[in-house]
């Protein structure tokens, strides 16, 4: 079974600074997809960024980027120029390729933005 | 606007009672999912359905049942066999085959509590 581990229960960063959230996963599959979701206090799940395992290039979405290390099974999220609206729970998630399986989530990292 | 509608927002269950959580989507997605979120935890997969009249158990299916009679609807029943049903329940949907990098879209959730 696949597992996703987020080792940082909580992180704090000053507004406008950069922060990196860690995620590692364990799988025997070669075809898979990785995602970061954001859950603000409203509890809505919002997609932040996605990465296909077959792509070597790291995904970027505006201020959000990932460092995907396939051999190390690591998928960290970097948030640049942190803003107050970035404060939320962040979840790393894994999805096996080849079907429409559900996502396997980590336990999340609570990100605090200090003004 | 296309999206996923979950109802009710809050639900209370008495001991020994079955309750049904509604999930409707107008995104024309084939696959639908139910997740459970406990405090301080990530989401865990209960059931998922890739096509009408077919569904599969997820990681924590015991005490739950689902049906998929229509493409747009995927109701979840929490039965009396589920001894610890208090949690936040999220429904999601995604395009099915050939597009595994497509994210799951989530509803706003239902909070279930025991009276």
What does this structure look like?
- The complex is a heterodimer of chains A (115) and B (115).
- With 115 residues, chain A is mainly β.
- Chain A contains no helices and twelve strands.
- Chain A has strands spanning 3-5, 10-14, 19-21, 24-26, 32-39, 46-52, 60-61, 64-69, 74-79, 88-96, 104-105, 109-114.
- In chain A, a hairpin with a 2-residue loop joins β7 and β8.
- By secondary structure, chain B is an all-beta fold.
- In chain B, 0% of the residues lie in helices and 49% in strands.
- Chain B contains no helices and eleven strands.
- Chain B has strands at 4-7, 10-13, 19-25, 31-37, 43-51, 54-57, 64-66, 76-78, 87-94, 105-106, 110-114.
- In chain B, β5 and β6 form a beta hairpin.
- The radius of gyration of chain B is 13 Å and the shape is globular.
- Chain B starts with a strand and ends with a strand.
- The A-B interface holds A 4, 6, 31, 33, 35, 42-45, 47, 50, 52, 91, 95-108 and B 30-31, 33, 35, 40-45, 48, 50, 58, 88, 90, 92, 94, 96-97, 100-101, 103-104, 106, 108-109.
Shape of chain A: globular
Q: Biggest sheet of chain B, open or closed, and with what strands and sense? A: 7 strands, mixed
How many β-strands of chain B, per DSSP? 11
Listing every helix as H and every strand as E from the N terminus to the C terminus, the arrangement of chain A reads EEEEEEEEEEEE
The Rg value of chain A, from CA coordinates, equals 14 Å
Catalogue the unreliable spans of chain B.
none
Oligomer: heterodimer
Helix content of chain B: under 10%
Helix content of chain A: under 10%
How much of the sequence lies in strands of chain B comes to over 45%
Structural class of chain B: mainly beta
Low-confidence stretches of chain A: none
Q: What is the percentage of strand-forming residues of chain A? A: over 45%
- Characterize the biggest β-sheet of chain A: 6 strands, mixed
Summarize the structure.
The complex is a heterodimer of chains A (115) and B (115). Chain A has 115 residues and is mainly β. Helix content of chain A is 0%, strand content 52%.
């Amino acid at each position: 079974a696949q597992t996703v581990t987020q080792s940082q229960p909580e992180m704090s960063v000053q507004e406008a600074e950069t922060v990196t959230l860690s995620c590692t996963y364990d799988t025997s599959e070669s075809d898979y997809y990785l995602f970061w979701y954001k859950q603000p206090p409203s509890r809505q799940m919002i997609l932040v960024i996605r990465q296909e395992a077959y792509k070597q290039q790291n995904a970027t979405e505006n201020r959000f980027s990932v460092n995907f290390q396939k051999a190390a099974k690591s998928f960290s999220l970097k948030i640049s120029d942190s803003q107050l609206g970035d404060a939320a729970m962040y979840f790393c998630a894994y999805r096996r390729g080849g079907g429409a399986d559900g996502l396997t989530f980590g336990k999340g990292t609570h990100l605090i933005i200090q003004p | 606007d296309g999206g996923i509608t979950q109802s009710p927002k809050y639900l209370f269950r008495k001991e020994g009672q079955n309750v049904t959580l509604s999930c409707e989507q107008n995104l024309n997605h084939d696959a639908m999912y139910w997740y459970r979120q406990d405090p301080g935890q990530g989401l865990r997969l209960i059931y998922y359905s890739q096509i009408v009249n077919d569904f599969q158990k997820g990681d924590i299916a015991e005490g739950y049942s689902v049906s998929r009679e229509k493409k747009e609807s995927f109701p979840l029943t929490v039965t009396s066999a589920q001894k610890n049903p208090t949690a936040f329940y999220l429904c999601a949907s995604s395009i099915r085959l050939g597009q595994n990098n497509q994210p799951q879209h989530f509803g706003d959730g239902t909070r279930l509590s025991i009276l």
